[in-house]
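Thread: "does anyone have the structure for this chain?"

Original post by V.I.:
We have the sequence but no experimental structure in hand. Need at least a predicted one for the grant figures.
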Amino acid sequence: MRRVVLLALIWGWSFLLIKVALGGMTPATVAFARIALGTVVMLAVLKATGASLPRDLRSWRHFAVMGLAYSAVPFTLLAWGEQHITSALTAVVNATTGLFTAVAAAIGLGERLRRPQVAGLVIGFGGVAVASGTGTSDLVSSSGAGIAAALAASACYGFSFVYAQRHLTTVPPLVAACGQLVTGAVLSAPLALATSVDDGFSPTPRQLAAVALLGAVGTGIAYVVNYRSIADVGPTRASLVTYLVPIVAVTVGVVFLHERFHVRLVVGGALTIAGMAMIQERFRRLRPGPVVAAVLALLLLGGCAGGGGSGGGGSCGPEVQEALDPGSVRHVLPGAPEPSYATDPPTSGPHLAGGGVGGVQSEPLPRPVQVAVLEEGGVVVQHKGLDATGRARLEALAADDVAVAPNPELPSPVVATAWQHRLVCGDAGEASVEAVERFVAAHRGGGPGH
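Reply from O.Q.:
Generated one for you, tokens below.
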């Protein structure tokens, strides 16, 4: 069981490493680097064990499918999703892999889902809804896209498990893993190159270290540990890692990335894990009454937590940490055309040198000025369509390093931005203003180099 715990720690930390690496490279580049470094490790292990990759075309066709569905596509989707949601939420959503595997097995292998397993699917996906804040004002369009990307990655994994069971059962596991990583690296390289040329490639040593750990340890070594764990304790006990990964990921995300903690994240994760346990029939020895009671209690708690959770937030969505705009080092000359930005409102990018302003502004701030405020460690709070009371509440937050300004082009009534961070709120009620106030307190003075 020590290998199961070790694997949970490795994969749990992987979500944090993805978030860090995204600061200097595109999602596709993160995915490619992860696969390529994992391939190097796996080839070394394969050589050390005396095994070799097959040469027949049929095997490589199957490796190509697995390389796309189990590596290139889901790794890119997870990285892209983490640009819009926290690493902790990504891990909870990604825990649905077992649910998608059950669905894929029912469709592709003809495995019959009994009533408890169908109930497990409903409860598991209900857990994702609770964790993501579905049905509350916390779920904004950007976070919805991030959740959808993480779910799509889980669906890819579910398909991959069934595909491997149908086509790769005669191939030694280490050989199959190495083959799919080789093809995954080749197939993901063009998109990584194209996006790096278009969006830039400017990782810091810290970000390079993150992607190196993600590839060599989180992919290469983790694959080896996983297969040895299956050999030691069997697939059933080895699968316990899927229950531990979200716990590790949520913990490191909150502690080391300072991601906002919500009670609903824990409740939703517990429901998702309960759903997987029901699908795998881990509750067979328990009486149905206590199991049903526990699930109903979690659903009730999730409903109570959905409105704001621990730490509150009113009608504000989760704080989003966004990737660094590669053009953030460029200065914009006064009167020059406004450049394009990776996000809108921008959280990094080209800016006016020394052009930052604070306090209450009566006119919208040009985007280069917004970024100048952020680069200097300030915070920009923008609003649209508010009544006098709402505007007054926000303007009370203004300071030398906090600019409060109108912006009719906002995607939502209130958006607060700091260097690489954004908070979106649906109104300027007291709860939302409190959330913005916490955002300002957490990020003022947080520009590059601070």
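V.I.: this helps a lot. The radius of gyration is 23 Å.
O.Q.: and The chain has a mean pLDDT of 82.
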